[in-house]
UniProtKB/TrEMBL annotation:
GO terms for biological process: protein O-linked glycosylation via N-acetyl-galactosamine. Keywords: Transferase. PANTHER family: XYLOSIDE XYLOSYLTRANSFERASE 1. This is XXLT1 xylosyltransferase. GO terms for cellular component: endoplasmic reticulum membrane. InterPro entries: Glyco_trans_8, Nucleotide-diphossugar_trans, XXLT1. One of its GO terms (molecular function) is xylosyl alpha-1,3-xylosyltransferase activity. Coiled coil: none annotated.
Length: 227
């Protein structure tokens, strides 16, 4: 098997011009830090990886695998036409919070509502990037353009700090057809921060996950259960 190591500085240099415009909307702190670009790698992976790489799985480090990663690769076969990215839903009401103004102005919206009928947003801890589909999707590449990012952030009054996850979430509100939603068991997030920060009444609607967990995600430094 072949291992290729990528230089972070080199990647950042390629990324920065593509993602600079979105950084001011989805980065922590104010200003656009050059180094923050790496948090947007997944968004433009199809522009950076060599053409012969057709699919890639990008994962966070705070994961514990309970199954063979090959089974996750098989999820690429379940992408519907037009979908370019496989991603699980966010399992806390973080985007109910972020979209508060849009929700107030649009009381009938599903934006920020819990599953199964709502649009709770996405969590980028486990990402299936169909690079080939991302390269070919005219729609997806239009959405990377600064003017489109600006238009959507204004429409949704969106200000985030979670990098690629915020971009995918916002785009998913507008164009859900670009995403293949992974079952929660592929990214069982354990963080409960929002339960104690104003959302205890609705928290469990976001947090519940039926089925045998395939990947645990110990986000916000949450301990992962021992076997």
């Amino acid at each position: 098997s072949q291992v290729i190591v990528h230089d972070v500085d080199e990647l950042t240099e390629q990324l920065f011009p593509i993602v600079e415009a979105m950084q001011k909307h989805f980065s922590a702190g104010s200003g656009t830090y050059y180094s923050d670009s790496i948090f947007f790698l997944s968004v433009a992976m199809h522009r950076i990886m060599p053409k012969e790489i057709k699919q890639i799985i990008q994962v966070d480090l705070d994961l514990k695998y309970k199954t063979n990663i090959q089974d996750l690769f098989d999820e690429f076969n379940n992408f519907p036409d037009g979908a370019v990215i496989g991603i699980a839903r966010e399992m806390q009401p973080v985007y109910r919070h972020t979209f508060w103004q849009y929700r107030r102005e649009n009381p009938q919206t599903k934006v920020g509502d819990p599953p199964p009928d709502g649009l709770p947003g996405f969590n980028s801890g486990v990402l299936l990037l169909n690079l080939e589909a991302m390269r070919q999707s005219k729609l997806y590449n239009q959405l990377l353009e600064p003017a489109m990012v600006q238009q959507l952030t204004e429409k949704y009054h969106f200000k985030g700090h979670l990098g690629d996850q915020d971009f995918f979430t916002m785009v998913g509100m507008e164009h859900p057809e670009l995403f293949h939603v992974l079952d929660c068991t592929w990214n069982r997030q354990l963080c409960t921060w929002w339960r104690d920060h104003g959302y205890s009444d609705v928290f469990d609607q976001y947090y519940q996950c039926e089925g045998e967990v395939k990947i645990y995600h110990g986000n916000c430094n949450t301990p992962i259960p021992e076997d």
